[in-house]
Amino acid sequence: MADIQQLKDIVTQVRRDIVRQVHAVNSGHPGGSLGCAEFIVTLYNEIMDHNPDFSMDGVNEDLFFLSNGHISPVYYSVLARAGYFPVEELNTFRKLNTRLQGHPTTHEGLPGIRIASGSLGQGMSVAIGAALAKKLNNDDKTVFSLHGDGELQEGQIWEAAMYASANHVDNLIATIDVNGQQIDGSTDAVLSLGDLKNKFEAFGWEVLTIEKGNDIEAVVNGVREAISLSRKRKPICILLHTEMGNGVDFMMGSHKWHGVAPNDEQLESALAQNPETLGDY
Ligand SMILES: [Mg+2]
C-alpha cells in the first residue's frame, strides 16, 4: 500500500508525462487527462488488485475500463509507471504504428488495454459485461470504469445504466468525471446533464459523490467507501468532481485545453509547476 505522499509524487510525475507526451506530437488531450490523474493513480497504486504481467481476461483481478478514451495520456502514463510497459515507450505517443494510439485500441497489443475506446458511450456496456462474467466465474473482484460527464449525453450510457440495475450488477463501480466541461464548452451550455445524482438513483444505482476529486486523500477515501457499498444488489456510481487541467495553472478552469497541446514556452511553465519526482522518460 502506498502512502499519501507517494501517491502525490506519482501524480506529479504523471502530470509531467501527460504534458510532455502531448507537446511532443502537438496533439492529444491534456485537460481531462490532468483532471483525472489523482483518480487513475489511486486506482492502480492503492485500490486495485491487478497484475502488470498482463492477461487479457484478468481472471481474479480487479479491472479498469477507460470509456472516455481521449484521455489516453494519463492512462498510458499510469500503466507505464505501474510496470505494464517501459516508460520510455511514452516517447511514441500518437506516432505512426505506435502501440500508444491517440485513442487506446487492443489491436496494437499494449499491455493494460482491454478495449478500444474513444467512441464515447460504450465503456459502461463493456464494464457491465465484464462484471457479469466475473459473477458467472465466481470471481469476486471488482470492475471499475471511468466516463466523461459530456459522455453521458450518449444514449447508450442510459441503456447500460438501466440494464446494470435490473440485473443487479453490484460488482461494478462506474465513475463519472464531473468537470462540467466538454470539447465545445461547458456541459450546461452544450446539453445540460441536470441532476446526475437523482438521475442515477432513479435508474436504480447507489450514488456517492467525491467533491474534491483532485485531492488524493478524498479520492482514496471515496473509492474505498464505494467498495464498501458494493455487493448489495445495486451498481455503484461515483460522481467525481474534478477540474479540467488540474495542476497546470493556465489550463485550469476552461474547456479550451480539452484537446490542445502546449507550445514550448507553455510546456516549460507546466513542467516548472510539477517538478520531476520519479524521473522523466
Ligand atoms: Mg467533461
From TrEMBL:
It is an enzyme of class 2 (transferase). Keywords: Thiamine pyrophosphate, Transferase. Its EC number is 2.2.1.1. CDD domains: TPP_TK (cd02012). The keyword Thylakoid does not apply. Pfam families: Transketolase_N (PF00456). InterPro entries: THDP-binding, Transketolase_N. The keyword Transferase applies. It comes from the Bacteria. One of its GO terms (molecular function) is transketolase activity. Its cofactor is thiamine diphosphate. Belongs to the transketolase family. This is Transketolase N-terminal section.
